[in-house]
Amino acid sequence: MTSTISHSAKGTDTGMRVNDFALKLANVNGTGSASANALLMQAIFRMGIPVSGKNLFPSNIQGLPTWYEIRVNKSGYTARALDYDLMVAMNSQTYAEDIKEVAAGGYVLYDSSWPLDSYLLREDVTFLGVPLAKMCLENFTSSRERVLMKNIAYAGALVALLDLDLEVIATLLTESYSRNEKLLASNQKALRLGYDYAKENFECPLEFHVAPMDATAHSILIDGNTACALGCLYAGATVAGWYPITPATALMDNFTALCAKYRREPVDATVPGAPDSFQNNYLILQAEDEIAAIGMVLGASWSGARAFTSTSGPGISLMGELLGLAYYTEIPAVIFDVQRTGPSTGMPTRTQQADILLCAYASHGDTKHILLFPANPHECFEFAVLSFDIAERFQTPVFVLSDLDIGMNDWVVPELTWDDSFVPDRGRVLDDQDLSEIAEFFRYTNEDADFVTPRTLPGSDSKGAYFIRGSGHDKFGRYTEVPAEYQEVVDRLKQKHAASAHSVPAPVIIRRPGAKVGIITLGSCDLAVREAIDDLADRGIAADYLRVRGFPFVEDVRRFVEEHEDCFVVEQNRDGQLRSLIAIETEVDIEKMHPVLQYGGFPLSAIQVVSAVTETLEDRS
């Protein structure tokens, strides 16, 4: 392809690629590009086409580079792409690196109000110049409006170049701005400016473009934080204690909004003639820090409420001592950890899976916690509901480990469903009738098959009263420093944790005939690893697949490792934490598991998995 700055250029490859391409939009943070980028992704989704959007943004408020990646794939491969067919270059500070990332034969759309430096040109890329700033200067009056509408104008050009449905775009704009006619008119005008310019100056559509499908008819676009909040609402959670932290803040923001809408009940006026009022059937407390937040949750849970907190790695670090208290005194609680890049402050707006060991063994001393690993927002919803049942059934903290990619990006997932016959599992709770039928109540005796003992709630008959202590106690709840009495309690806690394996979500296992290679992963790595397995199959390498969805592990995990000649563990952290946890807890030889690690902060791509697997196999052969 000729390297020219052309207004009528097109690729020499005349083969059409429909619903199979990737584009990247490079902007400056704080310039309002998010609305334009989301508009494009939502339009593609509404055209029935599998699509994904990854927002790669900095942690500052304004000024640094930000990127948005859209991948369109008719076969449903929507993990992050690393080669881009089209780059929308709107940030002069990153022109060089952005243009370098364009695949050979691809395109760069840029603002031609200013000329590109000649050193940026590539002979194998076509440059499509659109005078965006000039158009907005001539058509809009306020400086802020000119900046914002420039993004909508490039979206308009993309609508023409990629053959997006204009009616779908118009509907989306109306839905977004119907309450502000002036803003709606500005967006429609800017969109038309970009669209008309592309139609008049370029051959539209490009050889890669979209066409309507019916692949998303029973799907929704939703982010993981919203899905978790919905799950908490449906699970019956009524109390939340939290402290703001990226990338988990939106989870509690959404829960607050949902409660304000669905957890308010009318109260009859006590004064004749006065209007009726409402009462809130929920309590959400923003604490002074994460230590106080988990303390509030434990107090509410001990009192009988379904309570939770949302946080990220730094918050888990602060909660450690009280998490140990909850484990030892057997208080249920749910903790949502939307993982980000650490250690310390790290990179708050980058994704990672580096809290696995932190959460599995949170607190000092011998502790083990139950972990759930959703792979997408659909599982965030399901696991959120399940986490409260497990926490109360086993009277212990339960962690739901999402990450920034799942939590803050929109995903295409199957529609959420709900069974109206759902009854929460509150576990072994004795009421006054139960207490009347026993001679004495002791908090840590009379365990069931899962080593869970009954509990009582405040307000029960005095026979059910007990003293809760984080210091050494025996099975009767009495203070002790006698080794055998102390060990009897903590040994039962270990047995109870092991017994919970049958209650966490079972691993997803997919087998291929003749496979001698196994690949293990968790969480948001799912889509990239599944795509990689198909790619490996095309290269003649059959690989079985196991996705861990919960800890403690069931026997299937150990067996999967042992039955494969080569087993790879794919995760997004530096130290191979899932690999280590499997080795520690199943006692399989850690050397049987090859680490595949990506931890720079961006979502995983299939080619990264394929490269790691093939290189290791080649080295071994």
Mean pLDDT across all residues, rounded?
A: 95
User: Ends: how far apart?
Assistant: 39 Å
Share in helix? 25-40%
Number of strands: 25
Number of helices: 19
Query: If you compute it from the alpha carbons, what radius of gyration comes out, rounded to the nearest whole angstrom?
Result: 27 Å
Name the beta content range.
15-25%
Strand order of the largest sheet: 1-8-7-6-3-5-4
User: What characterizes the major β-sheet?
Assistant: 7 strands, mixed
Low-confidence stretches: 1-13
Structural class: alpha/beta
Apparent shape: globular
Structural overview:
With 621 residues, the chain is an alpha/beta fold. It is built from 19 helices and 25 strands. A seven-stranded mixed sheet has the order 1-8-7-6-3-5-4. Strands 14-11-15-16-18-17-23 form a seven-stranded mixed sheet, with helices on both faces. It is globular. It starts with a strand and ends with a helix.
